[in-house]
Structure formats: structure tokens, C-alpha cells
Design goal:
Layout: H1 8-22, H2 24-28, H3 36-53, H4 81-87, H5 95-119, H6 124-136, H7 139-142, H8 147-168, H9 172-186, H10 191-212, H11 217-250, H12 294-297, H13 303-308, H14 312-316, H15 319-339, H16 345-353, H17 367-382, H18 390-411, H19 418-429, H20 436-455, H21 466-472, H22 474-482, E1 493-497, H23 507-510, E2 513-514, H24 524-529, H25 552-556, E3 559-565, E4 579-584, E5 588-593, E6 600-601, E7 605-608, H26 617-622, E8 628-631, H27 636-646, E9 653-660, E10 664-671, E11 675-682, E12 687-691, E13 694-696, E14 699-701, E15 705-710, E16 713-721, H28 723-735
């Protein structure tokens, strides 16, 4: 075995080399993390960072879904401390810079894994194997696209290591460290976080119970104080994201998901074939037609870690190590059962019993727990390989070479045989005795070559910089020049149809405002009236109030241009007669709409409906919204006040935009009598109106918009988004007395 005197500095340097080799194309060759990482999450994080660098609050994102409560997005990463700190370092952080930030989180987690495994008795080889499996084994390689999950996963060993430090030396400082790490992990409100919180709670409970009986009363008090500090710090860091996301989800289309939604995200028993064969079912070579989802179910951790598991028999003889193996073995079993989802009765029982599970749809996320457990167990097992035994190393490398040859042959790609060559060369180099470190380096070389050939070979981990290509697209350049309504800071909007996913969220990076976007979480009111898509990969849901050819809500949202893609997998779409083509391109055409309204209207007539009363579709379509508004009250108070106000509110108002930011719009109004000002902006809780600095009632109008009655005279009218008022509204709605305002 490798002597325990191997320094942590040397191990960390070796791990950094491994990290660079595994991610070289993304780090240095202009490649980026694939799919959702660039199409959905990079634009989101870019918006957060760019807004802060521009001196604006990023609470409200005006660029997607007609306006989006970015602060309440569970996957928005606005409060992710290290990622946001990294992104604000540059005024214009590109996609490659973003990918560096994500991968640095994995390196941070790997570095913590090194020390954590050392504290659990692993030697240098075991630490490196375990940390590498953690960083790039299984779904850690195949699901790099899911940025919030990757970041949450990266914090897990940091939290466990901070807990170990606190238990060994209880203090306020270590309590703060544990609290910050736990809070930072909790800011990623994804199912992986939820599951790892349960695992960490169990790990901490076992560790604290064992510690409690072995220390003095004074040490117990110190431990209790440190744990209390950790809890407070974790709440300070994590509570804002929890509170805002809870509020936003209560108003969303996904307040709860039926159990049936989890079926699609459940893995079946065939998935376990990926443990030993990364191209089982020819899945890597043909992602679209594989009978098993290789991206969500990729479990392959490498030949060396798998062969190292034969060392578990030796590890079992040590009592302390045995307890660790039992714990992570239980985690592996529980994760395996959970990720099978609705294919077993267990998940249905958990769905009914475990609080919070109704918000998640993908049991396959538990594969991250399995990979973490396998990383820990394989690291401990690898520590029991006798690196001085020529026979043991020879057998291991002969089997590894043969195994890798079979796997590489199934890939039908010449570069896959690099791992075979490296394994054969390592076998030749280790034919003579040498130092333990030398043997460890060659075994790690085999593991790195294995991962580069079969895990991180471009199938899952990289793609072209679609965001940069999108910014250079002729249609994007044209729209960037044309999109302006003539009002300060209030550009016209676009909508898209038959486009690819880069037209969803990437518009954020170019500053274009769209009625569409890419997010599974959307405002329920907007979902009901407008019917946006989850993304361009998902079919649109037809709604009666915004159907072609009239598209009246597009008119009210100020949609000036329609981007029509040339996709062959969807029925062709030709805009109605009130559109005309202004640019034809290779993959998209741009059509201009002449029926779009200005962003602020001054109707002089009003029609009042009761709460939950819907206008007739034909009447709504025939309405001239420049002269008439529909009062569609959100609750009884809005109904009573709005109807009374409408009796004396019908004057002509001159409203001009004076200034606009993401969270505030300032107007100057002038009128001789009270009149309506209707904003082409969503009536979303937290958005409030002020007239000369005094609160002014906001009424829901035209289904989903904001309207105010402005008194006669010259005034300063402001619409301001207050995030904590959103939380207060959701609280009253959820826990208030009967009759509390609804959504």
C-alpha cells in the first residue's frame, strides 16, 4: 500500500492534473458543456451576473416568458455564492468562462473528497480513485448539462468534510464553515440536493451520536454550540432561495406533480448494465434509439475502480472501515431502489409519505447518490490493493486491458482504443517492482484514459459554443438593430415558432425580449392565458385567447417580430396576413407584425368581469384594447375596488416612459381627468405601483396584465418589483384566512 506519509499537497496536484486531462477540450479548446448547460442555464446565470455588473437587481428577468420572476427560479442559481462570484469577475462572461466555473466546482468537490477519504482511512491511491470517480464517474460525466445538479453534487463532500472538521474540533469557525457549505448546497433547489440532505443528515446523526458518548460535558456544549452556529449560517445562506422559490412555485404551473409524471424519469433494471459496459445497448452510439436512457442512467465508474472492489474483503477486516462501508453500502442500495422509481412500490410509498417529493419528477436523479457511494467505496477498496505485489498488479492490469479492449471494440471508434494502449503500457511499465507512488500513478493513468475514451469522449460532456454562434446569427443581428418601440428602455418583444432551443433562453444574452423561453417552471396565469412552451423541444399547448390568426395577447405584449424556423419535424407555419416577411434565412425567417400595441395603453372604456369569470373568446378577440380594457380581477378585493374605480376612470392620459430597469419602470403622466394606464407587463405578485411615491392600487386587466387608474394632473408613476412582497403575498395566500386574495 502507499505510505500514509503522502502529502495532501501532492495528492491535490495530481488531482488537478487529472481534472485538466479529463476536461481539456472544454477548458482550453473552446468547447462547452452540452445541451441544457448552454441552452438553459448559461443564459440564466449570465443574466444574474450581467445585471449585477450593470448596477441592476436581477430579481425580475424581462427577456423570457413576457417577464419572469428570476429570483424565484429554483434552478436560477442567483444565490449560488461561488458560481455567481466567478461570473461577476467579467463584464461579459462567455460560455467557456461559465463552463470553467461549473467544472471548478467539481474540482472543489474532488479536493474535499481527497481529504474526506483520508479521514476514513484511505491511502493515496484510494483517495485519487475515489475523488476521480466522484468528479467524472457515472452520471457525473453523462449529466454535466444539468448545471444546478452538478453544483449541488459538488458541495456534498465539502459539507461532509466540514462536518468532520467540526466533530474533531468543535468551534465557531468550523460551525460557520459547515453552515456556509450546507447553505451553498441548499441554494440549488433540485432533487439531488433533497436526497443528499437526507444522506448528510443520516451521516451526521451517526457521527454525532458516536462522538457524543466519547467526549466530556464541556466538549458536548462546544459541539452543540458549533452545530447551532452551523444551522444559523446555513439558514442565512440558503433561506432566501428557499423562501423566494417557495413563493414562486405556489404561483406556478408546478406547485405539485402527480405520481404518474415520475414514470418517464424512472430507470429500469437494464440500466445496471451500464455499470460494467458504458455502451450497453449501443446507447452511446445511438442516443435517440437506445431502449435505455444512457444520459440519466449512465453508471459506469471505470474498470480500475470496479476491479478495486475486490479489495473490499481486506477492508472489511478493519472495524472503523467496516462502519463506513456499511453506511455507503446502504446509501448505494437505497439509491438503486429509488432511481427505479415507479417500477417498484417503494417510490409510490415515499411519494405519499415523504414531504416535498411531490415537487420532483425524475427518480433517476438518485443515480448521483449511487455514484457518490461507489466513489467512496471504490476509494476505500483501492486502498487495499497491494502495490508491491507484482502478481496482484499484473492480474489487475491484464484483466483491465482485456476488459477495455472489449469495451473499446463496441464503440466502433478508433480513439476508444487509447485506453487499451495505456493499460497495456502500464502493464509493461509495472513488470518490475517500484515505489507505491509509481504504481498508483500508472493505475490512475489507466483510469484517466478509460474516462477520456468511454465517459468524457464527447458524447455527454461537450459541444460547440451555441451561445456564441447565436450572437453572430444574421437574424439575431437584424433583430438587435430593429427591436425598439421608441420608448426609453422598453423594446418590443419577439415570439418564436418551429425554432431550435437556442432561440429560447439565449435571447437573454443578446438582450432580446421574448414571449417564449426554456424552463419547466412557469407562471400559472401566463400558462393559462398565453400557453408558452417549456422549450422549443416541447410542443405548444393551444389556448383560446392567443390563437392564430388574431394572437391578441401577442398584440398586448408588444410582439413586433415572429421568428419562424425551418424545422422539418414540425408542421410548417405561415404567419397570418397582418405579418410580412422582413428577412429570409437559411434556418429561420423573420416576420414583422403590424398589430402590436405600445407597451402602455390608455383605454377610456372598461368592461368589468367577476372573479373567475372569463370573457367570451370572440368578444376578447374583437376588442380594440387601445380604447377598451377588460377588468379581470384576481380576487374579490380587486373586483370591488376595480369596479368602483372604473365608474370615474375614463380620461385621456399622456404616459411617457422616463426610465426603465429590470425591476422598476418610471413614467410621467399628464391628464385633465382620471384615466387608465395599462401596462403590457404581467400582473405578478411583487409588482406594485407608486404615484408620486405613494402606493397605488394595481388591477388585473385583459387577463394577465397590470392596470392603474391615474388621477388628473402631472404625476410620476412607477411600477416596482419588491421580492419580499412576493413572499408575503404567497404566505397570505397559503396561510391566510378564507377570502385571502388568490392568484
Amino acid at each position: 500500500m502507499i505510505p500514509e506519509t503522502t502529502s495532501y499537497r501532492r495528492l491535490l496536484l495530481a488531482l488537478c492534473v487529472v481534472w485538466v486531462l479529463l476536461n481539456f477540450n472544454v477548458l482550453f479548446m473552446g468547447r462547452v458543456l452540452p445541451w441544457d448547460a448552454i441552452d438553459q442555464f448559461y443564459p440564466t446565470v449570465y443574466f444574474n451576473a450581467h445585471a449585477l455588473r450593470s448596477g441592476q437587481w436581477p430579481w425580475w428577468n424581462p427577456y423570457i416568458y413576457g417577464g419572469y420572476a428570476q429570483i424565484g427560479d429554483p434552478q436560477g442559481m442567483m444565490f449560488s455564492p461561488l458560481l455567481m462570484a466567478w461570473m461577476v469577475l467579467r463584464a461579459e462572461p462567455g460560455a467557456v468562462w461559465f463552463c470553467w466555473g461549473v467544472l471548478l466546482h467539481l474540482l472543489l468537490g474532488g479536493a474535499a473528497m481527497l481529504d474526506l477519504l483520508r479521514r476514513h482511512g484511505a491511502n493515496a491511491l484510494g483517495c485519487l480513485v475515489g475523488a476521480t470517480v466522484f468528479m467524472a464517474g457515472g452520471v457525473a460525466a453523462s449529466r454535466l448539462e444539468h448545471t444546478p445538479i452538478v453544483i449541488a453534487y459538488a458541495y456534498v463532500p465539502v459539507v461532509l468534510l466540514a462536518l468532520r472538521y467540526l466533530l474533531s474540533r468543535p468551534s465557531i469557525g468550523f460551525g460557520c464553515l459547515l453552515g456556509f457549505a450546507a447553505g451553498a448546497m441548499v441554494t440549488q433547489l433540485v432533487q439531488v440536493t433533497y436526497l443528499f440532505v437526507l444522506m448528510i443528515a443520516a451521516y451526521g446523526a451517526v457521527a454525532v451520536v458516536r462522538q457524543w458518548s466519547a467526549v466530556t460535558v464541556a466538549q458536548r456544549r462546544a459541539l452543540a454550540m458549533a452545530m447551532a452556529v452551523a444551522l444559523v449560517v446555513a439558514l442565512v445562506v440558503g433561506l432566501p432561495q428557499l423562501a423566494f422559490s417557495w413563493a414562486a412555485m405556489s404561483l406556478s404551473n408546478r406547485n405539485a406533480l402527480p405520481l404518474s409524471f415520475a414514470t418517464v424519469g424512472s430507470l429500469d433494471l437494464r440500466t445496471f448494465a451500464f455499470l460494467v459496459h458504458p455502451n450497453a445497448f449501443n446507447a452511446q452510439r445511438d442516443l435517440a434509439h437506445s431502449p435505455v436512457d444512457v444520459i440519466e442512467g449512465f453508471l459506469y465508474i471505470g474498470v480500475v475502480p470496479l476491479l478495486a472492489l475486490f479489495g473490499l474483503k481486506r477492508a472489511w477486516s478493519d472495524g472503523a472501515t467496516r462502519r463506513t462501508l456499511v453506511f455507503f453500502g446502504a446509501v448505494a442500495v437505497a439509491a438503486s431502489l429509488y432511481m427505479l422509481g415507479t417500477h417498484t412500490p417503494l417510490y409510490g410509498w415515499l411519494y405519499a409519505w415523504l414531504p416535498g417529493l411531490v415537487h420532483f419528477r425524475r427518480p433517476a436523479d438518485a443515480a448521483y447518490l449511487l455514484n457518490f457511494a461507489l466513489a467512496f467505496v471504490s476509494g476505500i477498496a483501492a486502498s487495499r490493493i497491494d502495490l508491491q505485489s507484482r502478481r496482484e498488479l499484473t492480474v489487475l492490469l491484464v484483466v483491465a486491458t482485456a476488459w477495455l479492449a472489449v469495451l473499446a471494440a463496441s464503440m466502433h471508434h478508433g480513439s476508444s482504443f487509447v485506453c487499451v494502449a495505456v493499460a497495456a503500457f502500464a502493464l509493461w511499465r509495472l513488470r518490475k517492482p517500484g515505489s507505491d507512488w509509481r504504481a498508483a500513478v500508472w493505475l490512475m493513468a489507466v483510469l484517466v484514459a478509460d474516462y477520456r475514451s468511454l465517459n468524457l469522449n464527447g458524447t455527454f460532456n461537450e459541444g460547440g459554443d451555441g451561445a456564441a454562434r447565436f450572437a453572430r446569427h444574421p437574424a439575431v443581428r437584424y433583430l438587435s438593430q430593429q427591436l425598439s418601440s421608441g420608448q426609453v428602455g422598453m423594446a418590443d418583444r419577439i415570439t418564436t415558432t418551429n425554432t431550435n432551443t437556442n432561440w429560447d433562453n439565449t435571447v437573454i444574452v443578446t438582450g432580446m425580449s421574448s414571449t417564449q423561453g426554456y424552463n419547466p417552471l412557469r407562471y400559472a396565469l401566463y400558462e393559462t392565458w398565453y400557453g408558452p412552451r417549456e422549450s422549443s423541444s416541447v410542443p405548444a399547448v393551444g389556448v383560446p385567447y392567443n390563437v392564430s390568426p388574431t394572437n391578441r395577447l401577442d398584440d398586448l405584449l408588444g410582439v413586433r417580430y415572429v421568428v419562424v424556423g425551418h424545422r422539418t419535424d414540425l408542421p410548417p407555419y405561415t404567419p397570418p396576413p397582418q405579418h410580412h416577411m422582413v428577412q429570409a434565412g437559411r434556418d429561420v425567417d423573420i416576420w414583422r407584425r403590424e398589430t402590436a400595441y405600445p407597451r402602455f395603453l390608455n383605454p377610456t372604456l372598461s368592461r368589468s368581469l367577476a372573479v373567475d369569470e372569463w370573457p367570451a373568446v370572440s368578444d376578447f378577440e374583437a376588442t380594440d384594447f387601445a380604447t377598451t380594457l377588460w377588468l379581470t380581477p384576481r380576487d374579490n378585493d380587486d373586483f370591488v375596488v376595480g369596479r368602483a374605480t372604473s365608474l370615474s376612470c375614463g380620461g385621456i392620459v399622456d404616459a411617457r416612459v422616463r426610465a426603465s430597469t429590470h425591476t422598476r419602470i418610471d413614467l410621467l403622466t399628464r391628464s385633465t381627468e382620471a384615466g387608465w394606464v395599462v401596462a403590457g407587463e404581467l400582473d405578478y405578485p411583487g409588482w406594485e405601483a407608486e404615484l408620486d411615491g405613494i402606493p397605488l392600487a394595481v388591477h388585473r386587466a385583459n387577463g394577465m396584465f397590470r392596470a392603474v387608474c391615474v388621477p388628473a394632473g402631472d404625476h410620476s408613476l412607477s411600477f416596482v418589483f419588491h421580492p419580499w412582497h412576493l413572499v408575503a403575498y404567497a404566505w397570505r395566500r397559503q396561510f391566510g384566512t378564507p377570502g385571502t386574495p388568490g392568484s
